[in-house]
């Protein structure tokens, strides 16, 4: 089994030791990018029945951009606003660990099965969120899981505001009538 596949399985199993390993392995950035791409492509393939093939490319690009933004927000909130005394992290550590927290998202390919897509997306979303909390806790050297949850929630809200603003400015809300 390849190192990437093994790491993805361990990430999906919520193995905190894996997230420590990824945090320390600067050479794992390429793997983290692949995890985000694979998870995004799986989501795009799984949603072809509802949003069509165009969602595959747009969804993959949006997921990569979203990963960079959420990792940066998480880095800033976790190290500048809500650090613990032992918190010591850099942006790359968050990119790598959060990237691997996308591993459970590959199950979204099962959305191709009629009437199963929404169930798979809910399960994958919750699973990925739990993995992200573990990734953030490990990358930021937190002792408190609650603090990691708070950082993830704050990051999610800020990202949602940014995405909403972008859709408003460049989507239908920003076009003249």
UniProtKB/TrEMBL annotation:
It is found in: Membrane. GO terms for cellular component: membrane. It is a multi-pass membrane protein. InterPro entries: Yip1_dom. Pfam families: Yip1 (PF04893). The chain crosses the membrane at residues 28-49, 56-77, 109-136, 148-170. Residues 19-165 form the Yip1 domain. Keywords: Membrane, Transmembrane, Transmembrane helix. This is YIP1 family protein. It comes from Candidatus Desulfacyla euxinica.
